[in-house]
Structures are given as C-alpha cells and as structure tokens.
Amino acid sequence: MSKKLDNARLWRLGLAAAATGIGYVYHAMSQERSLKSKVIQGGLRVKKEADRFMPTDKKIQATEAYANRPKNHEDLFFITRDDKAQILRGKNGVLIDLETNLLSSTTANPWIIYFHGGSGIDTLQEKEWRFVQKLAKSFDGQANVSAVLIKSFANQSIIDEARRISNLIHEMAKQLGRSLEDVYFVSSDTGAIPALLTADFLVQDKLKIKRVFLLSPWLNGTFDDVTVNPKDVVYDATRVNAIKTLWRQKNPALNYAKMPTEELPAIDFVNGTDDSFACDGHWLHKRLRAHNQQSNYYQFEFMHHQFYLDQIPESQEVIDIIHQQIIAAE
What we know:
Elements (H helix, E strand, L loop, with lengths): L1 H18 L4 E4 L7 H17 L4 H13 L8 H4 L4 E6 L2 E6 L12 E5 L10 H14 L4 E5 L9 H19 L6 E6 L3 H13 L6 E5 L21 H11 L18 E7 L5 H13 L4 E6 L12 H17 L1
Parallel strand pairs: 1-9, 4-5, 4-6, 6-7, 7-8, 8-9
Antiparallel strand pairs: 2-3, 3-5
Keywords: Hydrolase, Membrane, Transmembrane, Transmembrane helix
InterPro entries: AB_hydrolase_fold
Protein name: Alpha/beta hydrolase
C-alpha cells in the first residue's frame, strides 16, 4: 500500500511540475487525502468547539499575556539536543544552522533560510523545528539550511526586525564563509512578512534572493477583507483581533499582499483550501502573474493552516516541492 501511495505522490508531483508554467496548481490530495490528516482535523475541530465556551475577555487576556511574556529565543531545548545544529550568535541576533551531511556539504551550496511563524508573537516551536530538520535532510548535503529567530511583532517593529535579519544574514555569511548569490527563503505563517521585507532590504544591497516559498502565509496586517472559511478548524476571530491590537502598538496596519511587486523575487505559494488566510496569498500570486513575474501557487485540497507541520504525507509533498524547485534552479 505504501509503495502505491508513493507512486501516486510522485505522479502528482510530476503533474504539478508540468503545470507550473501556468502558475496555478490544484495540487495534492484532492483524490487521495490521507486518513491521518482527517484525524488531525477532527481533533482541531473538537478543540475549536470547546474554545467557543471560553468567554471573549478571557481569550483576549490570555492572548495578551502570552504575547507579552518574556521568551528566551536563544535557549530552545529541542535544538540544543540536536548534535547536528549550531546556535550561532552575532551582534545582530541568532541563527541556527544545520549540518546533515558533513562530507558533501560545502560553502558553495545553495543557502536556504527559514522564517518561522507563530502568529507574530511566538518564537520557533518544536513542530516547526521538526519541519526544518526534514527539509534539511531532504537535501542531504546539497544545500545548507538555517533558521532565523524572529522577535515578537507585539514588541518590535516588523520593519526594524526585517532590517536586523538582513544585517544578520550579511554577518553570518561572512562568519560561515557562504555566498549571498545563491540564497532561498522558506517562510511559514507570519514569517512571510519579514521574509518578503528582508528580501527587499537585500535587493537594496544589490543582492537578489533567488526564490521565496510562502507556506500558509499570513500577509494581512490590517485583518480586513478576510473571508472566514466555514471549514477552517484553526481560525479564531477573537484571538485574531487580539493579535491585531497587539501588532498595531508597534506597526502600521498594512496588507503586505498589496505591497509593490517590482523587486520581488520568484515566489511559490503553498496553501490549504480550508485556510482563511489563503485569500491574501492568492491575491498576491495573481498580481505577480498579471505583471509577468514568476510565481506558482500550490493548492492542497481540504488542508488547514500550516498543515505541513503535522506528521502527515502532505507534509512530505510540500518538502518535495521545495526540493524540486531549488534543485531545478541550480
């Protein structure tokens, strides 16, 4: 059975690769959705129903308390126990670097930098770290993979944070002896905003990110024009509005899906159809295509926000898309 599913997955990936010329790909598990994804969504649906009984003011207070709780971004226990990861500290912050194949990994390899999510208020979580590890392992020494630690948007200007990360990438490139001519960004959730802004800062430094992958991107800082999908098992309007209030203490209310596109690199979008935030990624993709800029949109049927962080077959498909696009570009 597993061989049959593997063959079906490879067939779909080939079909997706052939379809990228039109830029929009109805991808993945529309015909063979994994049973495990159904089980996970069932659990999320039960949790969402239970959350409906929590009073609104309690949700808002819990969100504010969580966002303002001091977090040590440099002491993540699940990273320190990984002997293949290095926590590199510089004057511009922290970068976590992975080595999966010391014999074949070289400084001339493409450099993939991961921007984590967390609704703009949280640091890198263990689920995301597992995804970064799987991503690094898929290249097996063909690419260098790193992750940056992003500070809370509730306490830090997003613009200032993108500028800091841009400086950190310059600093770490020099420290690690890596070229800035072959860099890719992979972002999840709210990591999409600093990833795009950091790419813009690097363009101003006469550098160009070769490709940016936006996975379940959360791009709308205004939170306007969001059409809540009735099948969305993750979206909670009360918490989203509380986060909006926290973000606006330090940041203007901007929709980054409507930012100027002229200097943007090639962008690949990965979204689930049940994700209420998918509309902004779809909007930015259509704008890029309208201006003849390179962009692909991979739509995963029935999938929720950040589905690829779960231990499901669809997660591996997302990694295969990233791997295929980067290797094909080299």
